[in-house]
Structures are given as C-alpha cells and as structure tokens.
Design goal:
7-stranded mixed β-sheet, about 10% helix, mainly beta
C-alpha cells in the first residue's frame, strides 16, 4: 500500500465491490476513475469516506459534479497479478507534445457540422480500457493521440488505480498494450504510451485561450465504454474559468477540485473522460472530464466540463520531460500490498477487514492495516489485517497519510525495512522488496 485509504493520495487501498453499485467500505479501491471508482461519472462509486476538497482558490466552486469515466467491478479479495504498468519517461520527449495553435479559429456556431468535425477528430482518438486486479474491476475512458508513435493524453482518473491498460484506435480498431508515463492527480491529467505504435493519426489542437461564450463545440468519446463508433454530441461553451468539485457519484466522496474549466451544454457521458472537446474547425480545445450528475449524458440541458487544452498540454510537456514537480508523478511507484486507514477512526476498517469492531487496536499511532493482498511483499512478510505499520526504513509512520508520503519516495525493486505491531501487540521488523503497484 502506498498510503492511506480514506483520503485522496493514498495508493494501496483495498477494494470490495458490493454489487449494489459501490465499492464496499470506506477505504475502497486504489483511488481514481480508472476503475472501480469515481462514481456515476465513472458509473460505480468507491464508497470512500467524505473528503475535503483538495484546494480552494478564486472562483465559486460547483459542488458534486461527477467525473466522466466508466468503471465496473465484480468483487474483491482475489490473489493479484502484479503487472508493471508504468515506464520511465526517457522513451519520449517533450518535443512530441504539440503546442496550442495560436491561429486557431472555429468559433462559428452557425455553420458547425458535428459530422464534419468528428471526421477530422476521430482518427486521432483511442478507447482506453483498464484492469484493476486489486478490485477485480475494469474501467473505460477515452484518449487523444498526440504523436504518431503513440503518446496519448487522457485524464488521470481514467488510469488511476489500474494494473494493466490497453488502448484501441477508434477508426482502425487496432489494439495496443499501454503504459503510464506519468500523471498529475491535482489537475487530473495523464500521459500514456501505446507500445509498438507507429504511423498513428493525431488530433489537431486548437487554442483554448481564444474560446469564449457561445463557441460551438463537439464532444466526442467512448460513451458507455462500448468501443467502436464514438458518441458525438454538439453544443456551445456556456461558461469559462469555472471551478468545480468533482467526485464519485456526486456524493462528495473522493473529491477533487479543478480550476479554470470550460463549461459546455454538449452532453457528456460515462466513458467520455479524456476525450476531445473540439471547435468547428475540428481542433481540440478541451479534454472532457466531468458533468453535472443529474444531467450526465442527458440531452439539451447537460452541464459538462473540460480541461482547457492549453493547460493539459503544458502539463503533458512536463510529464514527457520527466519533470516531477508541482504534484506530477513520473513512472511506477513501489508497492508493498496493503490498504490502510486511520487508527483514530478504525470502526469501518475493522468491520470489513474480518478482524471485527470489538478488536482493540494495539497502538494509537501508525497506519492501521485494513487489507493485505495475497502474494504481495507485505503478505509474505507476515503483515495481516489489524496490524499497525509504525515505520519504514527508520522513518516513523504516525498516520495513514504519513505512510503515503514515505512510500512515494520508493520505486519498484527498492528494499525497505518495515516495522509494524501485530494484533498481539508484538513488534516486528522485516525487509521487503517492493513491486510495481496500481497507478496513482
């Protein structure tokens, strides 16, 4: 586990899809819309504890919109397959990321033809499908091809929590294995690479700084995660510079705050996340990300939101250059294989861990283990549900979030010394060699 379960930023949370439509328990699966989570935007909710928004500044927030990826799961507790799902960015460069087109037009709403726009954009699109081994789940979203050798832009919540990715070109139908180059969870941007790709068509990018009220737009995506011919909807830009709080199922849980978003009445549906919002000239001016939960995929009155393409491309350039700053995470992170929660609020964790709520946590400080995945380094070392992790390689761990911060420093293959207190109040220390875990 990378860290805490009940807060954004913790990686190794256990799952528990409860067939009624949400992941069981407040600790849920690894966060993000890549699978199992992110709610009716992603369709299935995590069921995590409510969280404060990540940041507040400037414009009024629109609360309880949902991100627009599609996720589903069928259970938890399986023995996991540990896939290496991320790669070093040294195989690509920032020069492969296009810059906004400063001469972009396409503001004419009268002559906007969605069929014509779609014919220009869809050759540069892919459908993204992710596997979530740790939740026995799956997810679907959309991506935009930025380079002929398969560098693809999408939302972080499309790939978050994934252990295996594939991408299929929308027009040609060619399927590729994909790896994550890096992500920016704060701004919900991710960059992935299609393995062995060459000669791909790319999207043409516009200039989101020139977008204003009334700009005609077309939203295109993998609605419903069905693949094949994309869903194409038409509308206009109804607001710019919006601040939204996006969450799973519109519940306020697992929320993130995104700023300076484009707002549109072009209907956006589950599975559209990471897809293009294009102007009348067929130039991408935004990346579909979220929609009002009550109008998600609806007709006429939909309230959808897209990340301006200028900002998304600027972040993509940093990721491609391997610039791990401002919250950007590059490459895979080390994973020990536990899901943890707060010692101070242990009831829900203990109830679903099998330990039982009558159990007395052995220490008041540390990261309470809710789940240990079979076959992982922590499991092999003897860590079990109900234990409390208190240190990693000499660094004290006093909270679940503290474990997250510590584990972000380590890559797969690193060896750490883990200290924990078991359910009999006995202290243990063991060396673990970390593996590659789910995407942040």
């Amino acid at each position: 586990g990378y860290g805490q379960v009940g807060q954004p930023g913790g990686y190794g949370q256990p799952g528990g899809y409860d067939q009624s439509g949400g992941y069981g328990g407040p600790w849920g699966p690894p966060p993000g819309g890549a699978g199992g989570g992110w709610g009716s935007g992603d369709t299935i909710g995590y069921g995590q504890e409510p969280e404060p928004t990540r940041r507040h500044r400037g414009a009024r927030a629109l609360v309880y919109v949902v991100v627009a990826a599609l996720a589903a799961g069928v259970g938890a507790g399986a023995v996991v397959a540990l896939n290496h799902n991320s790669q070093s960015p040294n195989t690509i460069s920032s020069q492969q990321i296009p810059s906004p087109n400063r001469n972009a037009g396409g503001n004419n709403t009268t002559n906007l033809n969605e069929g014509s726009v779609a014919s220009k954009v869809t050759p540069g699109m892919v459908d993204i499908n992710s596997t979530l081994k740790y939740e026995d789940g799956a997810a679907a979203g959309t991506g935009m091809v930025l380079s002929s050798n398969g560098v693809v832009l999408t939302n972080n919540h499309v790939v978050e929590g994934s252990t295996h990715l594939t991408a299929t070109t929308v027009v040609a139908g060619r399927k590729y294995q994909a790896t994550v180059i890096g992500v920016d969870p704060t701004d919900d941007v991710a960059l992935i690479k299609l393995q062995g790709a060459s000669g791909l068509k790319t999207v043409q990018v516009g200039n989101s700084s020139k977008v204003g009220l009334g700009t005609g737009v077309v939203a295109i995506g993998n609605a419903g995660g069905r693949g094949g011919s994309p869903t194409v909807t038409q509308g206009t830009i109804t607001a710019v510079g919006r601040t939204i709080t996006a969450s799973d199922s519109g519940s306020g849980q697992n929320s993130e705050t995104l700023h300076n978003m484009l707002q549109t009445n072009a209907p956006i549906a589950e599975g559209d996340s990471g897809g293009p919002l294009s102007n009348a000239a067929g130039q991408v001016i935004g990346m579909d990300t979220a929609a009002n939960g009550q109008s998600l995929g609806g007709a006429g009155t939909s309230q959808g939101f897209a990340i301006p393409i200028d900002r998304a491309l600027a972040i993509a350039k940093k990721i491609a250059a391997g610039n791990a700053s401002g919250g950007i995470l590059i490459g895979p992170k080390g994973f020990m294989g536990v899901g943890v929660d707060s010692v101070a609020d242990a009831t829900a964790c203990l109830a679903q861990s099998g330990v039982g709520t009558a159990y007395q946590v052995p220490t008041k400080s540390g990261a309470l283990v809710c789940t240990v995945y079979q076959g992982t380094p922590a499991y092999k070392a003897g860590v079990r549900a109900g234990d409390v992790i208190t240190g990693v390689s000499g660094q004290s761990v006093t909270t679940a979030s503290g474990l997250t911060g510590v584990m972000l420093k380590y890559k797969p293959g690193a060896t750490v010394s883990l200290t924990w207190v078991d359910t009999s109040k006995q202290s243990h220390t063991s060396s673990l060699t970390l593996v590659s875990g789910p995407v942040k």
